[in-house]
């Protein structure tokens, strides 16, 4: 790996491992709160976030930290500044239900608003995904790459749904209806960062979702891109930093998926 951002990646990895090991051994009763109708937060989320923030602030006291529970700064407040995006527990419902499909995600964005290094750690699966911009993506120290599936009818896809269905244009129901008949299968896995990492390693052929938060996808989007995926917003616009919608696919499929997502009935 490049010396550039090596220290940052090491510290982020240490932070993710510390928080992940804490969550993996969580034994206390979960005290649930609900930020919305289908958007829970637990004491585990908040404790994990506290551990991450303490570690990152100690190592990089001048950096801005954007975090899901206690410091969800608007993008306009941090534009053109070096900052970290933390998701202390992506997949809270999975965590609550005892499913292993959850993770911690950490990403560094530079003053040019580009994601430069990231970590996604899935403690229950013992999977540590890392990436440095321009240097590839790695899973437990082994380089990973996207699938080579080129036919939609052989593609395994994943997506999800927003926290609110009030706006039918952003419910993702139309997109599910468009995609499902065209592919082998579509899965809703409950953790966007994990699903993106599954695209990066070739277990999924593409993932799309809208109405996400920046900390949900910033880390994993870089891992996807460094593994060879074409990563855009859901309308096909490429991005290099924080976003709130994503379509990540192997390059053989990306344009085909985009056409299907928005085909007219």
TrEMBL record:
GO terms for molecular function: inositol monophosphate 1-phosphatase activity; metal ion binding. One of its GO terms (biological process) is inositol metabolic process. Mg(2+) 2 binds at residue 90. Keywords: Hydrolase, Magnesium, Metal-binding. Mg(2+) 1 binds at residues 68, 87, 89, 216. It comes from the Bacteria. Its cofactor is Mg(2+). It catalyses: a myo-inositol phosphate + H2O = myo-inositol + phosphate. PROSITE patterns: IMP_1. Its EC number is 3.1.3.25. InterPro entries: IMPase, Inositol_monoP_metal-BS, Inositol_monophosphatase-like. CDD domains: IMPase. Belongs to the inositol monophosphatase superfamily. This is Inositol-1-monophosphatase. The lineage of its organism: Bacteria, Bacillati, Bacillota, Bacilli, Bacillales.
């Amino acid at each position: 790996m490049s010396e550039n951002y090596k220290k940052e990646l090491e510290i982020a990895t240490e932070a993710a491992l510390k928080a992940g090991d804490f969550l993996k051994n969580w034994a206390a009763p979960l005290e649930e709160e609900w930020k919305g109708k289908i958007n829970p937060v637990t004491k585990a989320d908040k404790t994990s976030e506290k551990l991450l923030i303490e570690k990152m602030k100690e190592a990089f006291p001048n950096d801005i930290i954007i975090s899901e529970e206690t410091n969800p700064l608007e993008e306009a407040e941090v534009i053109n500044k070096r900052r970290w995006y933390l998701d202390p527990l992506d997949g809270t419902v999975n965590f609550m239900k005892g499913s292993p499909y959850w993770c911690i995600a950490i990403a560094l964005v530079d003053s040019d608003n580009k994601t430069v290094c990231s970590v996604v750690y899935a403690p229950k699966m013992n999977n540590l995904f890392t990436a440095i911009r321009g240097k590839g993506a790695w899973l437990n120290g082994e380089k990973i790459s996207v699938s080579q599936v080129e036919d939609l009818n052989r593609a395994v896809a994943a997506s999800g749904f927003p926290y609110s269905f009030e706006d039918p244009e952003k419910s993702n129901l139309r997109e599910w209806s468009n995609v499902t008949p065209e592919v082998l299968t579509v899965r809703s896995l409950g953790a966007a960062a994990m699903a993106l990492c599954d695209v990066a390693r070739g277990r999924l052929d593409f993932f799309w979702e809208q109405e996400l938060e920046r900390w949900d996808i910033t880390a994993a989007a870089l891992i996807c891109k460094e593994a060879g995926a074409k990563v855009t917003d859901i309308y096909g616009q490429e991005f290099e930093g924080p976003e709130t919608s994503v379509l990540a696919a192997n390059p053989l499929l990306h344009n085909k998926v985009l056409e299907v997502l928005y085909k007219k009935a």
